[in-house]
Specification:
Length: 332
């Protein structure tokens, strides 16, 4: 999460220059953790829309921040909270407030009790009248919010993180297969074709995940115009492959794969957490599907011109007579 914030700053700067330089200098001597704290208990996933309930208001000396955030990864170890907030104007200013973690009014609530990533300190944070300098919030009116050009690049990085969890699961599987010698077999199970085929399937899934992730990352580095579009579909493809690789290892090993003193069950729990990162699979497929269908949509045709009006009866025509009938002509 810290690396991602540096990516965002490089692409779309929002830190005061002197503060960012100070933070970088501090990073040379100690860990300086950063994270964008966006989710809220009522709002849900911010990428699905909506205004934050966390509010920020002007003061004579700067800004005051008040709100309740959830899922703040690294919460207890952060040096700076980048809290997503809005003013209460008719056209509210939206942006990330840069909040030093030692500011008075910040309280961490230990709510994180998760299936996986249990050491990530992803707790709730409550901000009560937290004061920050004027330059620490550069909100943009909601009506003028620009497209987030860095989000897609950050997304592929977050997804690729879970390939590491899957590779760790593979390492345990390989070691277990070479060390496990059933008495009925008399040799390591790694020598059997079944385990060799499973090992090949795990490697195939991981190679596919890495090729997709690295391929899209390369497109970003090269400035390819379709990099962001590719990144949307890369997320579910990498996630599926990583999860499949770990599940395949667990299924092959059996009970030892779910035994807590072995690391594989932790890797299984951790890798499933990839699904919650944006874009979630339904959103990614919807975006890609709409874009694909639009490329073959028929062109919108102009409406046909109206038919010419019928001749207007002359003043000599009687009601019911054919248009233009001579005077005295019988009605049809």
């Amino acid at each position: 999460m810290t690396v991602f914030q540096h990516v965002r700053q490089a692409r779309d700067p929002f830190w005061p220059d002197d503060l960012y330089r100070t933070m970088i200098a501090d990073s040379l001597t100690r860990p300086v953790l950063l994270n964008a704290v966006r989710a809220e208990p009522e709002l849900g996933a911010p990428v699905r829309g909506g205004l934050p309930a966390t509010k920020i208001r002007r003061t004579a000396d700067g800004w005051v921040l008040t709100g309740h955030k959830g899922y703040a990864t690294s919460s207890e170890g952060l040096s700076y909270h980048l809290a997503w907030a809005a003013t209460e104007d008719d056209d509210p200013l939206l942006g990330h407030a840069i909040v030093p973690a030692d500011s008075p009014g910040i309280r961490i609530v230990r709510t994180w009790d998760h299936f996986g990533l249990r050491a990530s300190s992803t707790h709730d944070v409550i901000y009560t009248d937290v004061e920050i300098p004027t330059g620490n919030f550069r909100g943009v009116p909601r009506s003028a919010q620009p497209a987030d050009t860095s989000l897609a690049a950050v997304t592929i990085g977050a997804t690729a993180l879970y390939v590491g969890a899957a590779r760790a699961a593979q390492e345990f599987f390989v070691r277990f297969a070479n060390e496990r010698v059933p008495t009925s077999l008399g040799r390591p199970i790694a020598t059997t074709e079944r385990i060799q085929t499973i090992a090949g399937e795990i490697e195939a899934q991981l190679v596919a995940a890495e090729e997709v992730a690295f391929g899209v990352a390369r497109r970003f580095d090269e400035g390819a115009p379709d990099a962001a579009e590719r990144a949307v579909l890369a997320k579910p493809l990498v996630a599926r492959a990583a999860i499949t690789a770990v599940q395949t290892a667990v299924a092959a090993i059996g009970n030892p794969g779910l035994t807590r003193h072995n690391p594989l069950e932790r890797h299984l729990r951790d890798v499933h957490c990839v699904r919650v990162h944006p874009p979630q699979e339904d959103t990614a497929l919807l975006i890609a599907g709409r874009r694909t269908l639009a490329t073959a949509a028929p062109a919108v045709r102009s409406p046909a011109p109206p038919a010419p009006p019928e001749s207007t009866p002359t003043s000599s025509s009687r009601p019911g007579a054919p248009p233009g009938a001579p005077p005295g002509a019988p009605s049809p």
